[in-house]
Write a structure and sequence with these properties.
The protein is an all-alpha fold. It has one domain. The chain is built from 13 helices and 2 strands; from the N terminus they run αααααβαααααααβα. It is globular, with a radius of gyration of 19 Å. The model is unreliable at about 180-185 (pLDDT under 50).
Length: about 350
């Protein structure tokens, strides 16, 4: 019954596009777009599980992270084109923190006890930690003066290239390892879609999600004005959660079905991918529109470092539990409060 309802709700995606063209009120559009992301996130999670049947949990998590982060890239480029650099930085840093604390927290909460892939877990956490340290290079000078000045955008280029090189090398090695593990593992009994069908559904759902998320972001300003929220809070919390809707839904769906290893892979792979691939990719692609400086705030880097340290501490033994999930979610609430109190620059 639930599956049939979710399939029916997929019609909300095209409806958002139609309502946007008809010029309905931004409040109505915001509500419909938010609801439309729920079945889309479920579909991405479902397709990921079918793809993971053919590729293994590690590659399945990578696929979900890749398809799930596509809307964030599109949203970031739209925002840069609109001159909203602070919104872009906030949404990207908030995405990493959201994956490490909120998405991973809900995954552990719904998945309960289970064993995690320690090597994969700590590889992802190490990548986020490395990115946080490297971000200090363009960020520290930005704490004094204009954070969007050209010199910081230029300084962000070698930083971005270095992170992309690290991402390619580490990802290649990780995917080879996961593929070997999957070949040696005993196949699960499951009536799975074929891999081309699963990947096709992932791609299609991601495209629709991108349209819906883009509409939702354009209605956020009106929502923020009515709620009295700063642009930075909207970007780092609201936009980041919206952009991570696919990861939230995908991780929770597979965790609830007892596949905690895959659920954790989704959250951790996504956080690492945003930190060492999406952020530098946005910085480099921005030169075709308006150069973006990776001049993150103190509160953003503190949140990134703190989230990485807490996740490392809780997952050190390679085990999941509902208590660990609650701790991560509580930490995210604290970070959200800090983002709210920091306001705009």
């Amino acid at each position: 019954m639930t599956r049939k309802v979710l399939y029916a709700l997929l019609a909300l995606g095209p409806l958002v596009v139609v309502l946007d063209r008809l010029g309905v009120s931004e409040t109505t559009l915001f509500v419909v777009a938010a609801l439309a992301l729920v079945p889309l996130a479920w579909l991405i999670g479902d397709a990921t599980e079918h793809a993971a049947h053919h590729t293994g949990a590690g590659i399945g998590g990578f696929l979900n992270a890749t398809f799930g982060n596509a809307p964030e890239l599109i949203i970031a480029l739209f925002a840069i084109n609109s001159g909203l650099e602070e919104v872009v930085r906030g949404s990207l840093s908030g995405s990493v923190v959201g994956n490490l604390l909120l998405v991973l927290g809900f995954s552990l909460l719904f998945g309960g006890r289970g064993a995690l892939d320690r090597e994969s877990t700590f590889t992802s956490l190490a990548l986020v930690a490395l990115a946080t340290l490297i971000f200090l290079i363009p960020a520290v000078p930005g704490w004094d003066g204009d954070p969007d000045r050209g010199s910081l955008a230029v300084l962000s280029v070698p930083v971005s290239i270095a992170l992309l090189v690290v991402y390619v090398v580490v990802t290649w090695a990780a995917l080879r390892r996961h593929r070997e593990l999957h070949i040696r593992a005993e196949p699960e009994e499951m009536t799975a879609w074929s891999l081309p069908v699963a990947l096709g559904v992932l791609a299609g759902a991601t495209v629709v999600t991108a349209f819906v998320a883009e509409v939702l972001v354009h209605t956020l300003q009106a929502f923020g004005e009515e709620a009295g929220l700063s642009d930075f809070f909207l970007a780092a919390v609201v936009v980041a959660i919206v952009g991570n809707a696919a990861e939230h839904g995908g991780a929770v769906v597979v965790a609830y079905r007892g596949k905690i290893k895959l659920a954790a892979e989704i959250a951790l792979a996504s956080s690492a991918q945003v930190a060492v691939f999406l952020i530098p990719a946005v910085a480099l692609l921005s030169w075709a529109i308006e150069p973006l400086a990776l001049s993150f705030r103190v509160v953003e880097l503190a949140a990134l470092g703190g989230a990485t340290a807490l996740a490392t501490l809780l997952l050190f033994q390679g085990q999941s539990s509902r208590a660990r999930g609650i701790a991560l979610i509580a930490a995210y609430v604290c970070v959200a409060v800090a983002f709210y109190l920091s306001g705009d620059r």
